[in-house]
Structure formats: C-alpha cells, structure tokens
Write a structure and sequence with these properties.
mainly alpha; 210 residues; globular
Length: 210
Amino acid sequence: MMPGSPKIDHALDHCATHAAGEGISLSEALDHTGPNAFCFGAFLLAVPFVQPVPLGPLTMVCGATFIALGWQMATGQSRPRLPKQAGELRIQGRFWLAMIGFSRRLLAFCRPFTRERLQDWVSGPGGQRRVGWLILTGGALLAIPVANLPLNNLLPALMIIFACLGWLERDGLMILVSLAWGALTIVYFTVLALALVFFGRQIFTWLGWA
C-alpha cells in the first residue's frame, strides 16, 4: 500500500463534486481512493474537529471509526471496513463542502513543509502498523468522554491528521509531529483530571462533606 498525494487531491475533488449534488457515503468515498483509503478517511473525518466547538454525537461516531480504521491498518488489512453508522455517513451539503475546502487548504498549507524524508517510518508493513496505531490511539483519545472544553477534540484530531500526512506525503517527520500531539493530548487530559479531582475535593470541603 503506497502513498500517493495526487490521488488524495483527486479524491477530494470527487467528494466535493458529489457533496454539491446527490451526496456520497463515506464507504463509497473510501472505495474511490484505493490504497490510501485508511488515511484519506481518517484525514477527512479529523478535519471537522480542527476548531473549538464540540461536535456532539459525531465525536463518538468518528472516534469509533478512527479506532476501526487504525486497527485494520495496523493489522495489515488491504481495505477498510467501517462500522455501519460511519460507512453510511452522507457527505453532502454545505458542512461537508466547507470541510473538503478546509482539507484542501490544510494540505496546501502543509505541503511547503513536507517532503519525502525518514521514509523508513512510513514505508512497508512497519510504517503501515506505525501509522495505524497512531490513528487508533488518536481515535481513542478523541472518544474519551470529558467536559466540553476547546482542546478535547482538537489535540487528538491533530495527532490523527499528522499521522495521515506522514503516510500520504511519505514524510516520516510528520510521524514525530503526530507523536508530539499525542503526548500533549495525554498531558492535557492528565492536568484536566488532576484539576477536577482538586476542585472536587475543595467543593466537598466547602460543603462540609469531607
């Protein structure tokens, strides 16, 4: 399974054409991308989370999809099999047109900084496993049910996006960037958990329950 950025651009164009008309299911969109389907699907689904507004039920659907895509990629499967609810997700209307447009701009922004390097990190079965586990881990972090704070979805989404960029652009350095976002996510959640425990104890003390 070899990366190929031009195919991703073509797949985004294909999705945009259908989203402006009758729409296309996520499964159909992935079928159109061939060997890049795992990372194209994960990249496209991660883009809506690059903003501060929580997306409610979509978070859990996408989290489960990232886990499924990551696991299948890490275990060497040749094509993705999505959970039914995710596979039937309809790419249609202004929301998805905006997300596809943002995906194009994000790729255009990143490409001056990406190039083929450290390819051992993103080549062969080892590279496929590495990227798959990063997508899976990002999906698990995204699905953690915590308070609706701005960075809850953003940080894991960036972890997934840079893992996908590493594979799609054949740039092993992006894998290290993805790992950095994952580490930052874990630190953020740990600090948040400690803060909740601390303030929870303070409230109990103030109420005289402790």
